[in-house]
């Protein structure tokens, strides 16, 4: 059930008031109950795991319907299995993560510790490309940290969003976790609520509006964005291996992934080899594309037209387009399917090299020396991920001289599968991180607690009148 329906629908002002009332209900419940125990947090995590297991078939059906065609196995892998893994890791670690950190006090018998306490109520705004993963995986950190949560999923996947609302309502009281649905106007109103923390996953252009709305209430924000994730292939790397791994992720979900490779930098003279190996990789994975249940459609007409516009612009400005279409099929325009396409000789004046692609199109450029590739990457906004194929001293040079949210060496996107590693961007690609203990810490407040010593020096140390003893102490203490 859509929680808003239980609170009453009406004008946007009514909807905003209903969401505010729900937030206040969660905050009141949080304050009344106090911090959840480890056992209570495990119970909530178990409930979330149960939802993913029990609703897995409906999840696959809902996502398929929203996309107009998406691999059932891809959904079960990315939107169910990956979420269950996140939740189980949090369940196994939460008791240890909650233990106070002991620190040295000013006096021998003083006590100093840090307790990671819940923030309160976290707002979660999730996107459409992996609707269940990017809603329920962050809950591993939010819930393990002891928070309550109000969720606003994407309006681009209405079937999935409605299912989320029904799932959550079946396992949680609205004072614990709740889902609200609606369009962009509801999302803007949602972002303006006085949460204790707000997590937004999506594009940078929308993130600016989210931050402005949150700023009115001084709400701290975690942003999981994207950007143009580069791939640098070294002269010593296997082109066949690199091409197969790159195209595996570039074709997964038809490239509609914030971590998908956005362009490839190849050594001079290796383009033809890359094209050949990329073609082989796609043919092995997708002998056909037009009706292949393993290949995903573009989410809607707007994004389909956007991608076609990139191709038209690149072609008009001199790029060579290599369509990887093993069966040479024609595509029904209403299916919103686009075959993986290499854009050879992409230049910076092309729109495809300026925007995050979010589709199965892959620009290919070349470089001479590795420093040329590094400089090119550094000349663009900091990406969510960087991928490097190679090794040795050059690998370390690339790592030392580039900046990105995360890195995978000799593969693509694998660092995000390691649930115990922090996942997040930096600068234009985001702020804050989650996954594993990093999520617990991100959605907690590190609260310092100090119990003063009973020694008489503790009482009189900083109390006037100051005498010779204080002067000698300060003289000795203020030194190199």
Helix content: 40-55%
Please give the domain count. Answer: 2
Distance between the amino and carboxyl termini: 65 Å
Strand content: 15-25%
Largest sheet: 7 strands, mixed
Query: What is Rg?
Result: 26 Å
Name of the level-1 CATH class of the largest domain: Alpha Beta
CATH architecture of the largest domain: 3-Layer(aba) Sandwich
* Number of beta strands: 16
Low-pLDDT stretches = 1-9
**Overall mean pLDDT score?**
94
Identify the strand order in the major beta sheet: 10-11-12-9-8-13-14
In CATH, the homologous superfamily of the largest domain goes by the name Aldehyde Dehydrogenase, Chain A, domain 1
How would you portray this structure in words?
The chain has 480 residues and is α/β, with parallel strands linked by helices. The chain has 18 helices and 16 strands. The strands form three sheets. Strands 10-11-12-9-8-13-14 form a seven-stranded mixed sheet, sandwiched between helices. Strands 5-4-3-6-7-15 form a six-stranded mixed sheet, sandwiched between helices. Helix 10 packs across helix 11. The longest helix has 26 residues. The radius of gyration is 26 Å and the shape is globular. The N terminus is likely disordered.
Notable traits:
single chain, about 475 residues, alpha/beta, Aldehyde Dehydrogenase, Chain A, domain 1, Aldehyde Dehydrogenase, Chain A, domain 2, 2 domains, 7-stranded mixed sheet, 6-stranded mixed sheet, 18 helices, about 45% helix, disordered N terminus
Record the SSE blueprint.
Blueprint: H1 3-7, H2 12-33, H3 38-54, H4 56-67, H5 72-97, E1 101-103, E2 111-118, E3 121-125, H6 133-144, E4 148-152, H7 158-171, E5 177-179, H8 184-191, E6 197-201, H9 204-215, E7 221-224, E8 229-233, H10 239-251, E9 261-267, H11 271-285, H12 301-316, E10 320-323, E11 341-344, E12 361-367, H13 370-378, E13 385-389, H14 392-401, E14 406-409, H15 414-417, E15 430-431, H16 436-442, E16 444-451, H17 456-460, H18 468-477
Parallel strand pairs: 3-4, 3-6, 4-5, 6-7, 8-9, 8-13, 9-12, 11-12, 13-14
Antiparallel strand pairs: 1-2, 2-16, 7-15, 10-11
Helix pairs in contact: 2-8, 3-5, 3-6, 4-5, 4-7, 5-6, 6-16, 10-11
């Amino acid at each position: 059930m859509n929680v808003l329906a239980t609170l009453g629908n009406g004008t946007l002002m009514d909807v905003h008031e209903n969401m505010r009332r729900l937030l206040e209900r969660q905050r009141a419940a949080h304050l009344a109950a106090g911090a959840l125990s480890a056992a209570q947090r495990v119970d909530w995590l178990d409930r979330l795991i149960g939802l993913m297991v029990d609703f897995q078939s409906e999840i696959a059906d809902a996502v398929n319907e929203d996309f107009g065609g998406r691999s059932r196995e891809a959904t079960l892998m990315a939107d169910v299995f990956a979420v269950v893994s996140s939740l189980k890791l949090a369940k196994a670690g939460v008791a240890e993560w909650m233990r106070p950190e002991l620190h040295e006090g000013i006096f021998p018998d003083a006590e100093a510790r840090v307790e990671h306490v819940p923030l309160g109520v976290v707002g979660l705004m999730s996107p459409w490309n992996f609707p269940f993963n990017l809603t329920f995986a962050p809950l591993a950190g939010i819930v393990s940290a002891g928070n309550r949560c109000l969720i606003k999923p994407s309006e681009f996947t209405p079937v999935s969003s409605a299912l989320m609302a029904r799932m959550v309502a079946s396992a949680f009281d609205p004072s614990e976790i709740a889902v609200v649905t609606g369009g962009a106007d509801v999302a803007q109103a949602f972002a303006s609520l006085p949460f204790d923390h707000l997590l937004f996953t999506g594009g940078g252009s929308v993130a600016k509006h989210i931050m402005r709305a949150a700023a009115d209430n001084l709400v701290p924000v975690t942003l999981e964005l994207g950007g143009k994730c580069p791939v640098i292939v070294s002269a010593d790397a296997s082109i066949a291996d690199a091409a197969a791994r790159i195209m595996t992720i570039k074709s997964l979900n038809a490239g509609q992934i914030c971590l998908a490779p956005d362009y490839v930098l190849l050594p001079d003279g290796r383009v033809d080899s890359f094209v050949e190996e990329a073609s082989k990789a796609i043919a092995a994975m997708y002998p056909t594309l037009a009706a292949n249940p393993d290949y995903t459609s573009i989410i809607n007409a707007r994004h389909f037209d956007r991608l076609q516009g990139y191709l038209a612009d690149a072609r008009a400005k001199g790029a060579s387009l290599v369509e990887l279409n093993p069966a040479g099929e024609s595509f029904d325009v209403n299916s919103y399917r686009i075959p993986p396409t290499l854009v050879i000789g992409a230049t910076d004046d092309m729109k495809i090299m300026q925007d995050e692609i979010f589709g199965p199109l892959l620009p290919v450029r070349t470089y001479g020396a590795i420093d040329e590739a590094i400089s090119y990457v550094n000349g663009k906004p900091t990406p969510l991920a960087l991928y490097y194929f190679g090794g040795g001293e050059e690998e370390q040079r690339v790592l030392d001289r580039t900046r990105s949210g995360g890195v995978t060496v000799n593969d693509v996107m694998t660092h995000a599968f390691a649930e115990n590693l922090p996942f997040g961007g930096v600068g234009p690609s985001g702020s804050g991180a989650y996954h594993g203990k990093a999520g617990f810490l991100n959605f907690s407040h590190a609260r310092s607690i100090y119990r003063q010593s009973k020694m008489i020096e503790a009482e009189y140390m900083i109390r006037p009148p100051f005498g010779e003893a204080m002067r000698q102490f300060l003289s000795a203490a203020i030194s190199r």
